[in-house]
Amino acid sequence: MRVKGEGPPNARFMVVGEGPGWEEARSGRPFIGKSGKELNRFLDGVNLPHRSEYFVTNVYREYQGKDYEYTPTDLERDSPELEAEFDRGKPEVVITLGRHSTRWFLGDVDMESSHSI
Questions:
Q1: What are the distances in angstroms from CA 6 to CA 11, 85, 86, 100, 111?
Q2: What is the pTM of this model?
Q3: What is the pLDDT of residue 113?
């Protein structure tokens, strides 16, 4: 099942991960498995705005298995959907989680030099 982003369409904040896991693919919702529980721990509404104030999504939309390496074909297939979500919401703050999402926004950057920017 394809996993689409969710949250307020005009959210001020957007979280972009790599791709869905098994639980996300089963439900069609992003960040509900182990990584979602960890994300919720941070977006608790106390130290940071509550998760309900974020639009959460992924670069890739289809779970292909635990050890699957995403390909340029996967990126070509899924990028238009992420671009549309970004254009529709125009978030003020984008939080990328991992190499794939960071490089989608910044290009082929060294992850050490782009940490925390």
A1: 10, 9, 12, 19, 27
A2: 0.89
A3: 66
